[in-house]
Amino acid sequence: MKADLKEIYARNIRLTTEAYDFLEKNEISQSAYQQILSYGSPLITKEILEEILAKEEKIPIQPVMVARPPSFKPEAKEHSPDFRVIDRSDITGKSHCTGKLEDFVEHFRNRFDRVSKILRMRPSDRPIVDTKRLKSNGSAPVRLIAMVTEKRTTKKGNILLTVEDKEGSAKVVLPRESEAFKLAGKILNDDIIAFDGRNAEELFICETVTWPEIPFARELKKAESDFAIVYLSDLHFGSKKFMEKEFARFLNWLNGEGESRLLQSLAGKVKYIIISGDVVDGIGIYPEQERELLVKDIYKQYELFDSAMEQIPDYITVFVLPGNHDAVRRAEPQPALPEDLVKSNVVRVGNPCQVEIEGLRHLLYHGNSLDSVIAGMGELSYEHPEEAMLELLRRRHLSPIYGDNLIVPEAHDYLVIEEEPDIIHMGHVHKNGYMVYRGTLLVNSGTFQERTDYQVRIGHQPTPAIVPVLEAKEGKLSHINFKGEAGEGTS
Ligand SMILES: [Fe+2]
């Protein structure tokens, strides 16, 4: 008896003679076996087997072919692409880390140096001290720059922090009546913060706290030429919940099949598309994912993605970075998707990565750390991913809480936001969100995956098939809903 048949019997599932004969004589896929095991019937008949196998065969090979109306004259076709992938922000081909203790020490030193340098540039009338020189100024007002390692509430209701820098550690108190206390809910583990206060014996009494932030006096940057950028993420090709019909509508729109003249003219401006991770659903990403997969072969998932990319007009430059569902290492920074997986003509970049498009500096990141920041800060929620993105920008770090999502301790911390971006683009939470903060545009581009069972269980309502489009010359962000009526929202 075949091993798989033995397993069926071992699970107390019985087969009719016809079903047994069929399985004995024919090879069926592992996923079909899994479906027999999880079918929920103590007796599997030939009819049930046929039902399972029929489902298996319904794997789409090609997305819908698009038609290009001859009247569509896209202006973006006449416009030469002008972009630069900023090499020093991308790990691809540069990872030398072996995960030794010294690697972690070097990694955190690098992070501390670069984030505290931003804090040192912030204007302050107080002298900056480190934990070693804390007592040298007596009880005069000073600014201490350090990393938070512990936060707790004292019996008197004050907040007590343990902080560290390269010289040592200190205890910082945020008294209940202080400005700093009001901001205590925002203080996360591993935050690098400037504490303004004064030394008092064994404690540092803190009055206010300052995160690295970005400067006030900035305006939303606009491009000189008239073109548009489309922001996508979390397509999840291969998932049963991938919205094939809606994605085909998106492709048709790009090819000039817009429902109105306005939408057609917007499509004609699209010169760049950025896809911020989770292009496929992947394999073995979470327990029992197999049940949710329509395509159980990772290469076939990427083939589907490639064939969809081939439907995009060739004058459009497409950038693709990986997410936590993609087939590269899970830990960040993630290298670009390899050429043997993504074969279509796209620009493959790492996660995170910086790309300058016609003068607009983009910071691209899939958004894994949004989960830990939302969990760590009570006032945030999945309803407004842009607010969680803002907290990353304020900290000048894409994954501030160590340990909550996997990182590789590279000697250079690729997740530090060293330069102020004009646009930050993320995905991961499957919910659209937009914000302009001190001249930086924050975009979360949602998904093309329908609500999953997991999202139903946790009460998360995604916003699938809504695509943000930036008209770069005007600095105008619209979004198009490919699920229902075409609509617009502006930032
Ligand atoms: Fe995703």
Q: What is the 3D shape? A: globular
Uncertain parts = 485-491
Q: What would you say the CATH architecture of the largest domain is?
A: 4-Layer Sandwich
Main sheet makeup: 6 strands, mixed
Cα-based radius of gyration, to the nearest Å: 26 Å
How does this structure look, described?
- This protein has 491 residues and is of the alpha/beta class.
- It has 3 domains: 55 residues, no CATH class; 287 residues, Purple Acid Phosphatase, chain A, domain 2 (4-Layer Sandwich); 88 residues, OB fold (Dihydrolipoamide Acetyltransferase, E2P).
- The chain has 12 helices and 20 strands.
- The strands form 4 sheets. The chain has a 6-stranded mixed beta sheet with strand order 3-14-15-16-18-17, with helices on one face.
- Helix 9 links the parallel strand 11 and strand 12.
- Helix 3 crosses helix 4.
- The site of fe (ii) ion (FE2) has 6 residues, from loops.
Question: What keyword list fits this structure?
Answer:
491 residues, alpha/beta, Purple Acid Phosphatase, chain A, domain 2, OB fold (Dihydrolipoamide Acetyltransferase, E2P), 3 domains, six-stranded mixed β-sheet, 12 helices, 20 strands, globular, disordered C terminus, binds fe (ii) ion
Task: Set out the fold topology.
Elements: H1 3-10, E1 14-15, H2 17-25, H3 30-37, E2 43-44, H4 46-57, E3 83-86, H5 101-121, E4 128-129, E5 142-153, E6 159-164, E7 169-174, H6 179-182, E8 192-200, E9 203-210, E10 228-232, H7 244-254, H8 261-269, E11 270-276, H9 298-309, E12 317-321, E13 347-348, E14 353-357, E15 360-364, H10 370-376, H11 385-395, E16 423-426, E17 432-437, E18 440-445, H12 453-458, E19 466-471, E20 476-481
Parallel strand pairs: 1-2, 4-5, 7-9, 10-11, 11-12, 12-13, 15-16, 16-18
Antiparallel strand pairs: 3-14, 5-6, 5-8, 6-7, 8-9, 10-19, 14-15, 17-18, 19-20
Helix pairs in contact: 3-4
The structure holds fe (ii) ion.
The site of fe (ii) ion has 6 residues, from loops.
